[in-house]
Amino acid sequence: MNEISEYRATELTADQAGSVAELLFAVWPASTKTLEVRRQQILTPPSHYCTDPDTIRRFVIWEKGRALAHAVTFVREIRHGDSQSMSVLALASVCTDPDQRGRGLGADITRACFRQVGRSGWPTLSLFQTPVPLFYEKLQCRLVDNRFVDRNADDREANPWRDKYVMIYPGEHPWPDGVIDLNGPDY
């Protein structure tokens, strides 16, 4: 297993944030975010994405000062049914340097994120979107097929997710039926 560093939202140095931004840019080059915008977002994460900014955690695998793999988690309050709320551990920006794939870095960093699930004070469930569900199924996740909305958005009924697949971890965890209000932008 690879050594994984865990950071609170504001613990990365400017150089570390720059390295993570370069990794994100290498994995998602078509994004409209410039390298500098990504770096600034890492250093000052937007609080509207999560219920409590103190829950933001970044996980990074480094090699000689360079970020090879990355993921971020935070707690998000979502709603279902008659506005019943539940806390989930949001998983986002899971990526591995394209030149380093096949080494198990993505699986290692994802497992580190999932170790938060169920710890004292943390949600018992993780919710996330992905274009690669088979990767996560191998890590004991499962697909959910609810309709998702964000009742805070301009188009309150539109699907807020960018990716086609939405999953939960652990896969055997109970999950509600019906519409789920993501209660904020996708992640």
What is the N-to-C order of secondary-structure elements (H for helix, E for strand)?
EHHEEEHEHEEEE
Nearest-integer average pLDDT: 94
Instruction: Quickly name the level 1 CATH class.
Output: Alpha Beta
Structural class: alpha+beta
CATH fold type: Aminopeptidase
Q: Return the CATH architecture.
A: 3-Layer(aba) Sandwich
Instruction: Supply the number of helical segments.
Output: 4
> What's the story with the biggest beta sheet?
9 strands, mixed
Number of strands: 9
Overall geometry comes to: globular
What amount of the residues lies in strands? 25-35%
Keywords:
single chain, 187 residues, alpha+beta, Aminopeptidase, 9-stranded mixed sheet, 4 helices, 9 strands, globular
Describe the SSE topology.
Elements (H helix, E strand, L loop, with lengths): L4 E4 L5 H14 L7 H9 L13 E7 L2 E15 L3 E13 L8 H10 L11 E5 L2 H5 L4 E3 L3 E2 L15 E5 L10 E2 L6
Parallel strand pairs: 4-5, 7-9
Antiparallel strand pairs: 1-2, 2-3, 3-4, 3-9, 5-8, 6-8
Helix pairs in contact: 1-2
Quick recap:
By secondary structure, the chain is an alpha+beta fold. It is built from four helices and nine strands; from the N terminus they run βααβββαβαββββ. Strands 1, 2, 3, 4, 5, 6, 7, 8 and 9 form a nine-stranded mixed beta sheet that branches.
